[in-house]
Amino acid sequence: MANRKLNRNSFGDPKNAGRLMTTDEALALLNEWVPNERLRLHMKQVAALMKAWALEKENADAQTAAKWELAGLLHDADWEKFPDDHCRIIIEELERRNIDPEVIRCIACHGPRIFGVEPVTPMEKMIYAFDELSGLIHAYSLMRPEGYEGMEIKGVKKRLKEKSFAAGVNREDIYDAVSRLSVSLDELIDFIISRQKTVC
Ligand SMILES: [Fe+2]
Asked: pTM higher than 0.90 for the full model?
């Protein structure tokens, strides 16, 4: 696997604080960069989780929640076209577009063992925690005839332990991310099941 370490810890320009893209602009970028519909859905799901968590658990105002949402929406934007430079390309694009540094650093934090940037703020810790777990739960919904309906925490945990299920989902990252939070794995799974089922 390519070395995707970013080898930096500072992202964006502080003078761009508060500068975001609209959701339409972000979706236009996704449509251009990400032909894979399933990957676009993954980013929309993480965006919805980030926004909901900011509003419901962090008492964030609308502007702050929009930052959380934008980071989720774009975190894998360069994955499909630039797999060897994943993360670096979208970061540089957002820096060129003068986007808020908190959004850019949050994206850089979604895989600390891969990109070498440690999540510090709640926004950074949550994108790391949601990313893989959201993917596993969505994969589980696709194999259930009822989709998300009636999905239980224990069913998700069973799939989590079953290494052959959604084998691309990194379990180690999930446990590491949760260990950095003050919420339990159960609470996180419950939140994801309830919020992501309506995202399409
Ligand atoms: Fe992701």
From this structure: yes
